[in-house]
């Protein structure tokens, strides 16, 4: 799924916090945006493994939420919302497509890595790939709570992210065609630094490299 879809999911959780504890609305929104996007910071370094922790983020929620309930501050609430958004992101990735250059072909069985289980969780492909039409639909639906609850800069950020989602959906497949064109013309010494998942299957196999 798109990073923006995960951000909207996190902000939808923050919207609930804002309704019941409006004094923490801003920190909840900020933590949700950061937590929703954070796992994808590993995009070029072991994507969906380095910063994706579907089990461990979830485990962190209980103590942080307990602390926030006993002593609600901007820090405790923010940390809790961050873990909620990051856990939701990591779990949601299992519902999407796999890790491959052309995920719409459905050839990869690696959706998100579970460090607790020591193995990759297979993709369910309810959303076929990031940037698929159904991904944009999901992102649009998840954006609604945040757009209804928040205003000002938070609302502006959400609208901007929605515009990015639309643009990414339109450009998703052309981006791959351009990437293939460029990669085919890269010198070997540069190609060695390109993540395997961005390489055509046959080249990735020939290189014998792994991002695991």
List its traits.
mainly alpha; 212 residues; 8 helices
Can you lay out the helices and strands and say which pair or pack?
Blueprint: H1 3-20, H2 25-37, H3 56-70, H4 74-92, E1 112-114, E2 119-121, H5 133-149, H6 152-183, H7 188-191, H8 201-207
Please describe what this structure looks like.
By secondary structure, the protein is mainly alpha-helical. The protein is built from 8 helices and 2 strands. It has a two-stranded antiparallel sheet with strand order 1-2. This is Metal-dependent hydrolase. Keywords: Hydrolase, Membrane, Transmembrane, Transmembrane helix. GO terms for molecular function: hydrolase activity.
- Strands ordered across the widest β-sheet: 1-2
Shape: globular
Strand percentage lies at under 5%
What is the average of the pLDDT values?
A: 91
Number of helical segments with 4 or more residues? 8
Model regions low in confidence, pLDDT < 50 over at least 5 residues? 203-210
What structural category do the secondary elements indicate? mainly alpha
**Major sheet description:** 2 strands, antiparallel
Radius of gyration: 18 Å
Short description:
With 212 residues, the chain is mostly helical.
């Amino acid at each position: 799924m798109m990073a923006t879809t995960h951000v909207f999911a996190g902000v939808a959780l923050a919207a609930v916090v804002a309704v019941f504890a409006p004094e923490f609305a801003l920190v909840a929104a900020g933590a949700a945006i950061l937590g929703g996007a954070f796992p994808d910071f590993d995009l070029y370094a072991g994507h969906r493994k380095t910063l994706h922790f579907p089990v461990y983020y979830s485990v962190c929620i209980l103590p942080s939420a307990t602390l926030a309930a006993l002593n609600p501050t901007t820090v405790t609430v923010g940390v809790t919302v961050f873990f909620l958004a990051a856990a939701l992101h990591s779990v949601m990735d299992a519902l999407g497509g796999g890790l491959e250059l052309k995920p719409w072909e459905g050839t990869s069985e690696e959706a998100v890595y579970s460090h607790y289980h020591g193995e990759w969780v297979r993709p369910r492909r309810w959303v076929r790939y990031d940037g698929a039409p159904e991904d944009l639909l999901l992102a649009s639906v998840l954006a609604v709570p945040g757009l209804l609850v928040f205003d000002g800069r938070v609302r502006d950020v959400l609208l901007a992210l929605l515009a990015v989602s639309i643009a990414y959906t339109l450009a998703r497949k052309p981006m791959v065609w351009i990437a293939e064109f460029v990669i085919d013309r890269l010198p070997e010494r540069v190609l060695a630094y390109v993540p395997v998942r961005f390489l055509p299957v046959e080249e990735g196999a020939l290189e014998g490299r792994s991002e695991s």
